[in-house]
Amino acid sequence: MKCLMTRTLFATLCCLLANFAQGAPLAQVDPSQPAYRQPEDMLLTSDGQSLLIANRGTGTLSIVDRLQQKVVAEWQVGRSLIHLTPLAGDRLLALDPVAQEAILLHRVDSQLTELARVPLPFSPVRAAASPDGTQLVVSCVWPRKLVQLRLDGDQLTAERELILPFAPREILFEPTGQTLLVADNFGGKLALVDMAEFSLQHVREFPAHNIRAMVLSLDQTKVLFAHQMLNSLAVTNTNDIHWGLVMSNDLRWIDLARVLNPADDFYGEGFMHPIGEPGKGGGDPTDIAVIDADQAIVTMGGTGQAGIGKHESYGLFRTNVGTHPTAVVVSPEKDIAYIANGFDDSISLVNLKTAKTTGKFPLGPMRELSELERGEKLFHNARLSMEGWMSCHSCHTDGHTNGMTSDNLGDNSFGAPKRILSLLGKADTAPFGWLGVSPSLAAQAHKSVEQTMHGGKLADEDAQALATYMASLPLPPPIDQLQGTHDPAAIAHGRQIFLRNNCIKCHAPPKYTTPDLYDVGMEDKERNRKFNPPSLRGIGHRDTFFHDARATSLRDVFEVHGHELQVDLTDQQLTDLILFLKSL
Fold this sequence. Notes:
Layout: H1 2-22, E1 24-25, E2 27-29, E3 39-44, E4 50-55, E5 60-65, E6 70-76, E7 83-87, E8 91-96, E9 101-108, E10 111-119, E11 124-129, E12 135-140, E13 145-152, E14 155-163, E15 168-173, E16 179-184, E17 189-194, E18 199-205, E19 209-216, E20 222-230, H2 238-242, E21 247-255, H3 256-260, E22 271-274, E23 276-277, E24 280-281, E25 285-290, E26 295-300, E27 305-310, E28 313-320, E29 325-330, E30 336-341, E31 346-351, E32 356-362, H4 371-379, H5 392-395, E33 405-406, E34 418-419, H6 441-452, H7 460-472, H8 479-482, H9 488-500, E35 518-519, E36 530-531, H10 554-559, H11 571-582
Antiparallel strand pairs: 1-10, 2-6, 3-4, 4-5, 5-6, 7-8, 8-9, 9-10, 11-12, 12-13, 13-14, 15-16, 16-17, 17-18, 19-20, 20-21, 21-22, 23-24, 25-26, 26-27, 27-28, 29-30, 30-31, 31-32, 33-34, 35-36
């Protein structure tokens, strides 16, 4: 009996050790239970049998048998999953922006285990693996950081960080792995990063914002971008919206060699698919999948559509899919595209030969949505605008701002484009707009949809849902905290300079704004001279300043434009004042 018990104990111990070696077990979730999963990213497994889906709303990973079109398992991986990166050996890396973690996972059929977790800086959004699979890089929006991870077997460690001059999002290794391309989350900047030194080589700029996809062509000689372009010279009337002059949505094919050479013409030998045409806009492109050497499919999150385009052939073959498509993958047979729909918890199937949607299946039943969740759907809905050219998100990227100017009747006139304001942390800073014309967020929602976007009458309940969502948008932590540059002594000195110069007249704490209009010695092109001061909270996350974006740094606000200082400041005093502002 004793020998039998010993053998049983030994077998149990061996089993536990084997499970430990394979990874920590994860909790399985019943996919038949109502939830709001909000699928955000999707991978096709290396054997082509399964779809792996990252769910932002629940932090789960759904495993789908693509041929049977059914969920075979759902695993609780984190608090929110927004991105998946495929790795060798049936492994993948998942990003959790809420827990601020990179999670290394291993999949065998429908089983999922955790191999490692690594803490990350605030707001991780994208990861990319080097061609040899040994290095991983993660982009983090608000700290403006890249984090280099080392993958050694099943061990994952953070090695180095790099601070960029803009907020990064999409990242892509070029084929040799020597250079990493990094796209701006808000504007049109593109960084080239030397991976040997993990250092910034160069920053290029091109006319774009909301760069939401960046992939290599099949032969790896071109880079495909999906983005938007806001024309500050156009006005938001029905004519300019109809012709796509105000907001265009684009799928671009750019020669990789030209992208990698800062001295070369970025657009040389390039090609652009307009995602939209008069009468039929294609607001908010979200993802790209390459089909073959000449074709790609792009999803339009704002209009709930997908479009197939051929290189050097204008126009897209479009089809309706689900609500707010977020990710697309192409089957190994190149006959079907699978599209994850972020706001209706489903997967759509598009026939790539006919460019028609042939079906849709659910990831599970959806629960009833809250007013805030309905507001988020409306915020990203380009169908609220005339012909579907733009959504609220198109200008207020992730609730923030693309930093550009727009001539949009925000001041009850055309002819004086105004800088697009961030919505983050603005719930208690009424009135809204540069001239303070909207007394509430609901009033501003009516004005934006009905007058700027020309989308027709907005129902009061929809305006309130939009207001509830906008009021929920939090400020990120101050940039000095996120970048580890917080200097209490300098900040205290800068605060005294702020007080001595009576900056609190317009920017009174704790909101660092006031509800009145002030003449600060500037006027717009319509001769308006009095403006409502934007809150200074979160100012370190902005790149342009003043009503017309004339200043491109906080130092320029004072050194070039002499903004409201009572006395001249020494260089050190100005530095401390700026450090104080960045701490807000």
